[in-house]
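Pair request: fold both.
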Amino acid sequence: MGDTIPAEKRKPLKDDVDSGFAWVVLIGCFVMYMFVVGSIKAYGMLYTEVVEYYSSGSGNTAWIGSIAIILELGLGPIANFLCKIYTFRRVTTIGGILVGLGYFLSGFVTRMEYMYLTFLCAGLGYGLTYAPCSTIISYYFNKRRGLAIGITVSGGGVGAIALPFLYKYLIEKYGLKGMFWIIGAIFANICVAACLFRQPIYLIKERKKRVLANNSSNNGYDVGGGRSSLGENGENIAQGINKSRCDALDLRFSLFKNVLFTLYVTSFMCCTFGYVGSLVTIPGNVKALGYDRTYVALSVTISAGVEVLARILIGLFADMNIIKRKYIYAVSMFIGGVFSLLAPFFESFTFIAVYAVIVATFSGSFISLMPLILIDVVGLENFAPAFGLLTFSLAVAVLPSQPSVGWLYDLYGNWNPSLILTGCMYLLAGIIVLLEPIVIRCCTKRDNEESSSPDNQRQIHNQCTAAEDMCKDNVGFSDTSFAS
């Protein structure tokens, strides 16, 4: 692997933004999304098979997929932290091994409850691949970021098109257990996609600056140093390296003080609750209406096929800046919510297919818009920790999602309450975004009132004075260094 080559033998890396190696990374992200997100979306097909094979309840069986999705999203901060230290390539390779192993071990399960453990393994792999795959692409694209993200996330749609029919074929030919063994081997190809990743030069430069800053701040450390400056056992170097690694784990919980960041995270959580629930309600509703396995797979495939095109077009449309991205997102949520509320009134496969198209086109568009809106709010310099916090928050929303819609089905005997619940969550997600002007106005008014108080004015004056003194000291330091 390229990142095992000694530093002195490496060629200088080019800043391949929007060109060059960026497109190779995009291919790797697309393939990884195809297996990682595609298998999550296609779980609805496995869900119906597991319920039937083990004669388990809908609500309890739904926990299997929820465990995987919770770990996929919840491990985002840790995965991004590990990628800064050990590179994106190494972390996602380990994730690919865990995903394949989790599915392979599921073939030996004798009771449905044991799948909680095997999908725990697969979920750890999902967690080590999803956030890094979603993060690295934003470092390699700027002007075409929306298009690149759209192409990447459309890989999940491609996977969701192929996997349900692949599951169906393998189950009919080898049974459920044999299907898990074969799929485990196929999903190990995530490691192949990981080999196409290369550490973004933005992070390489950032890491070098952090190490130099930490080393220079150590007392008695001389960059050009001799033995006396390093200490007897090189303690200062070790402290500098350890401190730089600790700094990489930058969870930035202070980002939640940014009201816009908190606002959008809350909205994305509501949308995720509804969207993840839809992955179960759509195929579950098809089977509940008496359609066979072919129609169940077809409902998932229709949704996935539309997503492939819709997410690319929405990402491209977002890059044009014709309409603000937040409005694209809000309108999409309202359309998805309205159709979810109408779904209980129709009991034909034709309408379910139309509903699947609407969910894929509009409700599922948040996957393409989420990184773009996040960068608009916090900037690229805070994107990695912000995305980690976002995925962790989304895991909290996923936790009750699929079990809730499954339990509602067990309670009422149909999927109508579950469809209404997902529709309400979509509508709530759109309403929260439209509250942005009111939230900004309230926060601005509060800040003005606080800043107008005498105590705060004195504090601001003292801070400004300290800042001026610091600037003078820095200028003086710079002048002396040039003179020397």
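--- second member of the pair ---
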Amino acid sequence: MVYNQACVWSRMEALLNEWLWQEKYWLPPGIRWRDIKMKVEDGHFPLPRDLIYTLPLALAFIALRYVFERLVAVPLSRAVDVKDPIRIRAASIPKLEIFYKQNSRQPSQRELLSLGKQCGLSQRKIQTWFRHRRNQDRPSNTKKFCEASWRFVFYLFAFTAGLASLINSAWLWDHRECWRGYPKQPVAEAHYWYYILEMGFYLSLLMCVSVDVKRKDFREQVIHHIATIFLIGFSYCANYVRVGTLVMLVHDSSDFLLESAKMFHYAGWTRTCDSLFVVFALVFLYTRLVVFPSRVVHTTLVVSSEFFQPFFGYYFFNALLLVLQALHVFWAYLILRMVYKFVFSGKVERDVRSDEESEVEDEEEEPEEEGDECSWEQRKGAINSKLASLANNCVLNNLTHQRNINSRLPKAR
């Protein structure tokens, strides 16, 4: 039995060596795996099997996040007075609940008529029930605050640790040093852990993407996470570690500012939120539209060709960088549009990065017919919550909302 398992494992390893770890994919022309073997005293050489540790690390991040949000983030949200909107709970109607979960959250006109016949309710009451039910599923401000605080802590730690590990590195100041001696470049222990932690964290984000607050740029976020994971993994295996550390440092430099601004937004600290958003916008636009293309992408596309001939890894790595750059342009456009609306129109427009199914304001609540199961106190609380939300008109509304402000004003009746 043991012998058979060993044979299967050896065959799988031989298949990987034959198809996946071909030298033409990972190394420049004329370089062989045996040519880049280093002695232990020369430093740690990146090996593909090192990335196996990122999977259990991602699970550890998820567990740590669970503990952090409940023991740190939730008490912190109470300390800074994060308020959750009061929402009217939908009445218990089993047939509508089954339809909501199994068919659609927004039934069509024909489906409304069919449900009305089944439940003996008017079409308006069914529409009201579905509106209340959708609002029940919207994540609270406390949940969004906890998510933002977790990402803020990691990005701040990653940026601080990354900058500390790279401050004395030659390639941080002279990007030609990224390729001098490539691919036989030892990796320092700090840079090794920088890579492993970053990849483990992005894996955890990808695993939790279905339960996190969904935003309008959900697809772009998924593409970003996948591209980042491939970028980190491939650059590590191909020993693009030096330029890879620069890519991660550039991204971490603005991410913690965005998450901190969100935290203050959910807490209602408008002036602090506005100030942090301005700082974030400046840092983002400079690092993603100036530093990233002119320094990082330029050195991988142009400068690297001075040290070795292009190969598959060269094209694959640069393609991933260009995908990230396209996402940078997309998000920069949204930020510039928000700034333009705020400065020149004096009006804040909801941003495309808003929560797709979790806007701060609930959907518009219409007056109920007599006999509805909601009490006057519930309706009064919902109205007061909406008025308070409409008053909270800071710049970061653009980071967490999508619809135009006019669409949330109560209809004239």
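Observation on the second member. The radius of gyration is 26 Å.
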